[in-house]
Amino acid sequence: MAFTVLVTGLLPYDSGKTFVGRSLLRYFRSLGYRVVSYKPIAAHSAWFQYETVEKSFEQRILVGHDAYLYWEDLNREVRIEEINPIDILTTPTDFHQNIRLYLSMLESFVSQACIMRISCLRSDGSYVTEHYIDLEQLERTIPTLQLKLMELAEKLNPQPKPITHDQMEKLMNNPKPVMCADKQLKILTMKYDVVIVESFNNAATPTPLSAEIADKVLVIMPGKALVYDGRRYLQTLKILEQTMGGKIAYTTVTQQIVELTKPLGYMKIHPQNEPSENALENPEILTP
Fold first, then answer.
1. Rounded to an integer, what distance in angstroms lies between the CA atom of residue 277 and that of residue 21?
2. 160, 236: one domain
3. Do 232 and 101 reside in the same domain of the chain?
4. Residue 60: domain span
5. To pair with 217 at 20 to 30 A between CA atoms, which of 185, 196, 211, 273?
6. Within this chain, do residues 144 and 268 fall inside the same structural domain, yes or no?
């Protein structure tokens, strides 16, 4: 089984996970390992990251910024679905007179979900991809964005299945897509020497298996990465899971881990325009 590094973020946004993940890819490659980057669950904004809409047009499947960068780092030798099975496109709600309602909806990730892609591996090795579109959220979103998203929906292959907002919320909370993501992760660990798994936002783990098999875990913040032993990290997750009444572990945020568990050490992260193995100080702490 592959040596697995789980990359998480301390901050809800802009911790720098993808920069570190891409730098690690280059570092392990320089040592001669067969490496793959994996983004089980991705989300991106059609408004703030409009280039993802354009990339999705080009590829005819929903794809986010981070997964696309990893795909290019891997020289497009794998399918996007292989390294990113779950993708969600969010759209901001159009402004009306109720400022409090408007701001509360912008703060809610679930309320902004508009299009979702789920790609699952079949037993014959092929992928079955399904797109879904929340027509209620599409109607609520910014008028100047609506037409573009309708055009995208027609371009996606397969075309999205129309659903309600309640159905979208249930789909996002359904364990089956996460099971698909973990199935794909297991396959990657058998094909590569090193697997770099990137979590989403400040989630302690994107899927259960991501934490269960992690040899090392990084918690990223600007300028620094805390390094944890994977087994110790998992033990803390399980304790937190019990205190939350048995809730699934990936609802935990990294702050809770950092408050309870001492890291093995840390790596300094140097500011650079492009990811590079030189951006990470003392990456040897991660070497298999």
1. 10
2. no
3. no
4. 40-179
5. 273
6. no
In this structure, are 204 and 159 located in the same domain? no
Furthest C-alpha separation in the chain: 58
Same domain, 119 and 219: no
Helix crossing, 143-155 with 50-59: angle to 10°? 20
Q: Do 233 and 133 fall within a single domain?
A: no
Name the CA dihedral angle for 225, 255, 40, 272, rounded to a multiple of 10 degrees: -30
* HSE (side-chain half, CA atoms, 13 Å) at 97: 0
DSSP annotation of 141: B
Q: Which long-range contacts (CB under 8 A, 24 or more apart) does 280-286 make?
A: 280/20, 280/23, 280/24, 280/27, 280/225, 283/24, 283/27, 285/216, 285/227, 286/5, 286/24, 286/216, 286/218, 286/227
Give the count of beta carbons closer than 10 Å to the beta carbon of residue 277.
Answer: 15
- Flag residues of the chain having pLDDT under 70: 97, 102, 105-107, 244-251
Whole-angstrom distance, CA of residue 67 vs CA of residue 73: 10
**168 and 46 both lie in a single domain:** yes
Give this prediction's pTM. 0.94
Q: How far is CA 87 from CA 33, 67, 209, 262, in A?
A: 28, 9, 18, 33
CB of 268 within 8 A of CB of 224?
Answer: yes
> What are the tens digits of pLDDT across the range 214-270?
999 999 999 999 999 999 999 999 888 887 665 555 568 899 999 999 999 999 999
